[in-house]
Amino acid sequence: MVLITMLLKNAGYEYIWADTGLKGVDLALEQEADFVLLDIQLSDIEGTEVLKRIRALDAEVAKIPIIAMTSYAMAGDREKLLAAGCDGYIEKPIDPMRVISQIRAILGEET
């Protein structure tokens, strides 16, 4: 968490942190966001359930780009998460440059 927040701040991004998946779904409804970094292993519900709930929200919110962050690194895991509706995939431990590169690519910013 600390690494991600420092990374986002240093790259010039503002962020809102949700400490549970259910709070993340609520924040997606309440706050205008450019993207979501979604940890797949959460304390309350699975990240894939958060993904489904966000994608089921109203049309504008459902289009928010979502990047999965996960320690799942088995063959096929990336493809499963992308097929489930994620727009990007980052393996843990994270590579800071890869995180920023993924965010910029999804937002259409120069890398």
Walk me through this protein's architecture.
This protein is an alpha/beta fold. It has one domain (2-107): Response regulator (Rossmann fold, 3-Layer(aba) Sandwich), CATH 3.40.50.2300. It has helices at residues 2-10, 21-30, 47-55, 59-62, 77-84, 96-107; strands spanning 36-39, 66-70, 88-91. Strands 1-2-3 form a 3-stranded parallel sheet, with helices on both faces. β2 (66-70), α5 and β3 (88-91) form a beta-alpha-beta unit. α2 (21-30) runs parallel beside α3 (47-55). The longest helix has 12 residues, at 96-107. The two termini are 23 Å apart. The mean pLDDT is 91.
Topology:
Blueprint: H1 2-10, H2 21-30, E1 36-39, H3 47-55, H4 59-62, E2 66-70, H5 77-84, E3 88-91, H6 96-107
Parallel strand pairs: 1-2, 2-3
Global outline = globular
Compute the number of strand runs. 3
SSE string, helices as H and strands as E: HHEHHEHEH
> Would you identify the CATH H-level superfamily?
Response regulator
Q: How many separate helices?
A: 6
The whole-angstrom Rg is 13 Å
Widest sheet: strand ordering: 1-2-3
Give me the secondary-structure category: alpha/beta
The name of the CATH architecture is 3-Layer(aba) Sandwich
Largest sheet: 3 strands, parallel
CATH class: Alpha Beta
**Overall mean pLDDT score?**
91
CATH topology: Rossmann fold
**Unreliable residue runs:** none
Domains (count) = 1
